[in-house]
User: Fold these one by one.
Assistant:
Number 1:
Amino acid sequence: MAKQIFETNTFKRLRNQYRLVIINDDTYEELVTFKLSRLSVYVAFSTAFVLLVTLTVALIVFTPLKYYIPGYGSKESRTELQLLQMKTDSLERSIQYKDQYLESLKKVLSGSMPVQKDTTSLTIPKTDIIKE
């Protein structure tokens, strides 16, 4: 019961008529008069909002402005970026390997890393030397 009263009161308030009058302050002359309701104001603002959003999206989608959006670009620029990323990754990897090699070489030359000597003797097969 209370819900029906609330619903009827809400719809009644939405349909109540109001008058918006714009008056010249010096002469008290009515310049413009509008008859409005809460529902008509809500519909007008909703329509304006939807139109503004639609125009903004259309402006971005159908003009070159989309290239200024971060993360968006042409297909060529994206493939070029991927190639550059692969090159930088491989360069970073090679620099890392060279740094590891130099660090290991420094340790060996400074003597901080013991060098394991090979104590097994090599058997070298003798070859026949032909003298001319």
Number 2:
Amino acid sequence: MPGDAASTRRRILDAATAEFAAFGIAGARVDRIAAASGANKAMIYKYFGNKDQLFDAVFDTIVVQTMDDVPITGDDLPGYAARMWDWHRRRPELLRVAHWDRLERDAAGMTADVVRKATADKTEAIATAQRHGLVDDALQAATLLTMILELSRTGLDAPGTHRAAIETAVRRLTTPQSS
């Protein structure tokens, strides 16, 4: 039953996301993921392999979900940064998974094909906006992307005024300077 398999995989990924966010890779337990997802451990191993491969699947899913939920628009980078900030506030467990990747795996997840493609797509959106004169080109597109993403992760426990401050900062960073 393809529908049942897809539903089971989704439940496992959701439970694994929560488990990895709370405990990291080393502290996560497959038996807790199985219990939370209503699947058995054998099914988890069948679908995802070992615990590290399950973490990879969670990480990849987060990247794809982020790209789908918060698409970048090169002509509105301040708005993109603000939407990313909103997204991180709504889904803090996803940012925690990324932190665990950095802490326990030296950011191995950041080298995955899905991450490289997402980064390339975002960088190209910025570079295109720079070529069209919509975004200042004093910084390389990749550097600008890194700065925007880092700003979007700040002050997540701050009031909504921080969101506006991020928009202002990105606007100042990206507005083309007149000669």
Number 3:
Amino acid sequence: MSTSNTKGQITGGRRQAALGFIFVTAILDVLSLGVMIPVLPNLVKAFGGGDTAAAADWNVLFATTWGVMQFFCSPVLGLLSDRFGRRPVILTSIFGLGVDFLFMAFAPSLWWLFVGRIFNGMTAASFSTASAYVADVTTPETRAKGFGLMGAAFGIGFTLGPALGGWLWTFDHRAPFLVCAALALCNWLYGFFVLPESLPPERRQTRFDWKKANPVGSLRLLNSRPGLLGLAGVGFLFQLAHNVLPSVFVLYMGFRYGWSPQVIGLTMMASGISSIIVQALVVGRVVKALGERGALLIGLFSGFAGFMVYALAPTGVLYLCGLPLFALSGLIMPGLQGLMTRRVAPNEQGQLQGANSALMGVASIIGPSLFLLPFAFAVRHDATLHMPGLPVLIAASLMLLATLLAWAKARPAPTLEPQSA
């Protein structure tokens, strides 16, 4: 892309500074979410009197509601970022995340937690809009590497976050949420004073079109480019399978292996370290040697194999053996995003990410019931069924389907020029 700074584009050192900010933003965003992962299910469980199955049922309601809000609101936020720029959407999303954590910190009942999840679902677009930001400031040839940077941020956040959350939980059950709210506030202030805009006015949509902003209109974009719908299907299956992690893994590891929140946090920390290693040392080399398609296929099959280990491991030690294998699933998003962003124009990147987030919302609607209800059933019938890993086997099946679809549909495509609104 052009690097002329006379029209507001990010150039030279400012481009590197912008990528650095997005990297920090993504880390803080995922760090705050990582802190919540080992804590929120246990807080829900505490509100429910310690009943694991009841906690699973409540988490279905929470996660499904969040997914519904994201399904309807993400396309609007994506198109807003194409029309008015990435910066205001990112800042709004970070602010919404902070408000959500304050609700959770002071919630006197489960219904207050529910209100917080509604508000967060309405504004949850910081990571997806950050992906559009990365597409703005990278070339098609370096885009997979840029998305690999996002993956590294994801890994760092999930390395430190769960361990921090488990540690804070030992002092006070509300402390993790207060820390997350403070992190979100710091992130918002940093972005307000530092973050430059990545999408100059002449590369934006000329008007905001509600026909494109609704979920159906946003998803039409996926059917308007060759191969894009198939890739979106791969992403949907991956996101649906990935929902098993936040949905049941804290409850699953606690039930099957008897691990405490602190041990679970350390396990997630080990998973995050493995992911960072993959992003730092593997993604670039694999993309260079095998292309974005090769990276995507290796990542999907590794995710399938890792889930199989997680589901069938009878002991905690064998479960840990699956961590390095599953870490290779970090190849999925750099490969998939690289292939998808080549198929849309610069002023459609936000709409693309909005459509992807809408599909993520659908996955978040379906995922909790798909995984938590079988888990609750398995827990209630453990004496006869002996299959607490049932939901993880379902996730493995979805990853295998995604691998087969990617084999058929993942093909290179030329990069498009800006499209009129």
Number 4:
Amino acid sequence: MVSRVWAWFRGARPVVDALRSRPLVDVFLALPLSLYALTGLLGDTYDVSRPMYLVWNAGLLAPLVLRRTYPRAVFALICLVCFAQVVVNVPILPSNMSVLMGLYTVAAGPSIRWGVAAALVTVGGVFLGTARYVGGWGDQKYGLLLGSVFVAGVWLLGLHMRTRRAYLRSVEERAARLERERDAELQIAKAGERARIARELHDVVAHNVSVIVVQADGASFAIDSDTGRARQALETISSTGRTALAEMRRMLGVLREDGDAGSYTPQPGVAQLAELVEQIRGSGLPLEFAVEGVPLELSEGRQLTVFRIAQEALTNTLKHGGPRAAARVLLHYGDDAIEIRITDDGRGAAARSDGRGHGLVGMRERVAVYGGEVRAGPRAGGGFEVVARIPVREEVRR
């Protein structure tokens, strides 16, 4: 019960904040000893006048108000008062227990050397007081032994409290450090997620907008001569725009602060490559698609990487390959890796770039996550080639 009350007193917020200043707490802790000392006024137990009794008790108890604020100075002052008490032959008073309180405070402080010095001084005072007030060697031996035991017990209690406080401080510092590290890791994770979403948005927007631009150019060219083809191009534009909006809504949903991103369709994977090929063919680009080897069971991240690489490479073909370009996509399953190769016979090295694209950088970042590699560049006979190899060592054959 007492421990619970003490814990509440130390930790309550904000009711007792004003009461937790050190002088007020020290007054509260010294109050029982002060009340006990005042009981000496009720009789003639001590051979000293009442005014002097009050003066000596005040000299021993008053410094306790600043016991934790200036522990060494308060202990030294109390020891000086006790020494003066022995010199003028004033009998031992109840307030002499304040020496033990001062010893406990110094021993519980941050310096163990000062605690040992305070203990030695207190033991010296026990010897001095015993020699002064106790007659007979037999009684002096018991007085010295009893006083030394009290001093050792109080010193050990203060040392234990010092160790406990140091442990609690280390635990608090560790908790604060872990909290800071957790916040830093959270910020890193957020930055990584933003970078991932930025790459996804780049792939989605670049691909779909490129398809829309190609179809819009075709529709404007054929609107007078071939209304059917123009209508088909406009339908492709509408379908591609809806797809782009749906994908962007799905990816941006994770940024909602209320934590309710709703229900979204899964990320595209290898199974969606056929749909991507059909979409590119619908935009007017001749395209072949082939699969070699035994299909493997791939993680969603690897499947998304394969899909995005194909999407980015075909988008670049649409943008820079030229009007007569044709492309080929080859997906090869090996024993320890999956390889996707996208080639075209377009302009290749002659194609102009505005320098604003991040497609190749995004490809390399995606593949580097899984320890793979990407080769991209113009082909010797014309055109452009992108080859990505992604290890699947931990994957299992279907």
